[in-house]
Amino acid sequence: MKDFIIPPKDWSRDMGTPAIRSDQHVTLSVDGLSVTVPTGTSVLRAAAEAGITIPKLCASDNLEAFGSCRVCVVEIEGMRGTPASCTTPVAEGMVVHTQTDAISRIRRGVVELYMSDYPRDALACNALADSELHAVASAVGLRDVRYTEGRNHQRYPGNAEGLPLDASNPYFTFDPSKCIVCSRCVRACEEVQGTFALTIAGRGWDSHVSAGMASDDFLSSDCVSCGACVQACPTDALLENTVIQTGTPEHVVKTTCAYCGVGCSFDAHMRGETVVKMVPSKDGKANRGHSCIKGRFAWGYATHADRVLNPMIRDRIEDPWREVGWDEAISFAADKMRGIQAKYGRDSVGVITSSRCTNEETFLVQKLARAVFGNNNTDTCARVCHSPTGYGLRTTFGTSAGTHDFDSVEHTDLALIIGANPTDGHPVFASRLRRRMRQGAKVIVIDPRRIDILESPHMAGGMHLPLRPGTNVAVLTAIAHVIAAEGLYDEAFIRARCDWDEFAAYRAFLLDPRHAPEEVEKTSGVPADLIRQAARQYAAAPNGSIYYGLGVTEHSQGSTTVMAIANLAMMCGNIGRPGTGVNPLRGQNNVQGSCDMGSFPHEYPGYRHVTDPETRRIYEAAWGVPLSDEPGLRIPNMFDAALQGRFKGLYCQGEDILQSDPDTRHVSKALSSMECVIVHDLFLNETANYAHVFLPGSSFLEKDGTFTNAERRINMVRRVMSPKNGYADWEITQLLANALGAGWDYTHPSEIMDEIAMTTPSFAGVSYDLLDREGSVQWPCNAKAPLGTPIMHVDGFVRGKGHFVHTEYVATDERTGPRYPLLLTTGRILSQYNVGAQTRRTANSLWHPEDVLEIHPSDAENRGLRDGDWVQLASRAGATSLRAKITERVAPGVVYATFHHPQTQANVVTTDNSDWATNCPEYKVTAVQVSASNGPTEWQSEYAALTERARRVLPAAE
């Protein structure tokens, strides 16, 4: 594979104004060059399309034209004066001159005035060499500033001291003295991010950028640290602290973010092997040049002092760790696993793949189980998050993935969001949705908690259905009842794309009075009139889309809820065109890919069952070994088998199952009963407390490969620095496999992808050359779709006819009562990610240093609790302590906790209830009691002591 290094001149090519979508075009002349562009395009962008650069300061191609800086003026034949090219639309036959003596004088004079108000000492600053202001000054031929240096209006806005440097944010600094009040940061905060945290305060000479109230700084304001303002600033008034500390970069490598399932493309700006900054790629098809705090700034964990860089082993988990070389560690692990199989049988060991590792690495781990261990004992974190998505969408549509690309949101008229919190969990997608809402799209949120998307400024309208946790199926079926009863369904679509007789039976099921909103209100707590309004709005929307998350799947009826969602989409014809679809918002960066790569115990890559002889023959021929036709153990089955003495060895790559899986006590007992637990990760995580082998992993910055995001988009991950542990993760898996006699000989991840393409129909056309050329593609990518498939089920469903499934509501076994009267549901927060192993080792912890429990004021008052008090959260499974946050976001009777910090061990209270079809845990419904506490529980204290003992490392031998 070729190196994908972007030449410096192409780092930040900006077309000046956004692209215009239009079927009509005009032709004009720019400096004698003929150029044809869509009607409505600005002269500035038309010139850029012709390869002509017009200097600018206030304009950017991700912002609407503003026309304030007057640097981009041009002359247009037949038009008086010198109009700003950013705000002037093209016209047929227009003749534009961008370089005349008069224009040059005007531009030079304007830029000189800006420079006269710019601190002279900053002109020599190294950081300035990378700023647009410096480049524009050079472009207009400005060499000297004639004006004597006077007071800088940002340093002295009406007072002697002026505006102070704002270094409150740990990731960037705002120097008001360098600000020219171009408003690009304010506009980026509004138009791109949608937070509206920044304003221009004051007037005239005293005008300046303000982060909220006069008493606010960037840290205390509504700023979410997405970096859009920093990226927009042309003068380095807003500048990354890493640039201030390290200097300007020397080269750029394009890669993919390793956080959530949005899959943002980033340009890693490098100085040697040091990351200077991460800038969202403008050509990233998932993020379109935007980012969030995690991808933009929270990559420092890759070089954190906590990283373990040397392999470690120990005979018993009570022993301290002993650092060893790679050969000894791999031999130790191989001998242990080989011995376990010899003693307990072939099925006594298994693997857990990682949703944070690449497709290629995940493929090798499941291959290790099947081709080397000789069983199908492979599972992944999707078991505890999105396995119901695979089951539900495969049953109804025929595929185990979302139907549409993220660009589709630009065409939606109504977004129904259920069990998801996009602003915290998938913030870049949320920004795109907010933009569409400002353009008039409506939103319906079905969630026990009021989420931030409902507070979006300038949105057309929002509806919140605050259902009781565990009643998703009842509410969705009631919505479908209204659509069926009032004849709001799309009969033409159903007759063409589904089985009409099957729908008729489903309609009869829906019309049963027990599914009426008035009946469902008794169960769900959602007012019947809200259910009816939501049904009518969704059915009436020209393009209705559904987005959902773990609040759908992590239930005892998770698979049923996914099928209820699919039923709704089919009923209203909202499948197969832009602006519609069923779109699961995946939590981790490669959870879709880990499923695609065959991580489940019953499926090979591409979701083909292990009992299918034709599929088995493909892999037996490719791998040269016979393969088992017996489905393997799911993660919960592994734990149960371990406690029964039948499962004794586990290779766990990149997942912290002790912190992330439910019923922590059960997991810890299962791990303790195993004879060899191999943890392959960046840090000594909670699972490593019970491990016998620790294999240090590599971060996304240290490897090549691919991730697959929530829209099925396969994105390249490119190595920007050498692996600090000596190996990429795929190489470590290969070392272990070969120590067990596998004889693998991969030399680069591209060879693994070639094997994936050779054996997996949906990936048949995928190669690194294609991804380098196209940037990314969405599977299925094969002979029928050589450039991928942005929208699925356009002309028909993959399974043939869409399948309507009866969605009977079955109440969870978890019930409230006198001892446990409240219902706990869990979720994430913007600044932290999953179990926090990465984000807790960055400055993101400044925003969320500990987990909190949200509780309604009435429930808090009944218990004598105040905001910030320590409280004990107890369930039938266990208890933990954390601080209370009193809020009306949750309804009375419902509490909400985050789960990012191991000190909390939130899953010690969750039960072992799970989805009927997939064993996905029911994290979102736990009966609890909340009471005042003096601090950590006995369990937390014991666990802290255990952790301290388990992480002892013997000093290195002299």
TrEMBL record:
Pfam families: Fer2_4 (PF13510), Fer4_7 (PF12838), Molybdop_Fe4S4 (PF04879), Molybdopterin (PF00384), Molydop_binding (PF01568). It is an enzyme of class 1 (oxidoreductase). The keyword Ribosomal protein does not apply. The keyword Transmembrane does not apply. Its EC number is 1.17.1.9. GO terms for molecular function: formate dehydrogenase (NAD+) activity. Residues 250-306 form the 4Fe-4S Mo/W bis-MGD-type domain. It comes from the Bacteria. Keywords: 2Fe-2S, 4Fe-4S, Iron, Iron-sulfur, Metal-binding, Oxidoreductase, Repeat. InterPro entries: 2Fe-2S_ferredoxin-like_sf, 2Fe-2S_ferredoxin-type, 4Fe4S_Fe-S-bd, 4Fe4S_Fe_S_CS, Asp_de-COase-like_dom_sf, Formate_Dh-H_N, Formate_DH_asu, MoPterin_dinucl-bd_dom. Residues 170-201, 214-243 form the 4Fe-4S ferredoxin-type domain. PROSITE patterns: 2FE2S_FER_2 (PS51085), 4FE4S_FER_1 (PS00198), 4FE4S_FER_2 (PS51379), 4FE4S_MOW_BIS_MGD (PS51669), MOLYBDOPTERIN_PROK_1 (PS00551). SUPFAM superfamilies: 2Fe-2S ferredoxin-like, 4Fe-4S ferredoxins, ADC-like, Formate dehydrogenase/DMSO reductase, domains 1-3. Residues 24-102 form the 2Fe-2S ferredoxin-type domain. In the C-terminal section; belongs to the prokaryotic molybdopterin-containing oxidoreductase family. This is Formate dehydrogenase subunit alpha. It comes from Paracoccus pacificus. The gene is fdhF.
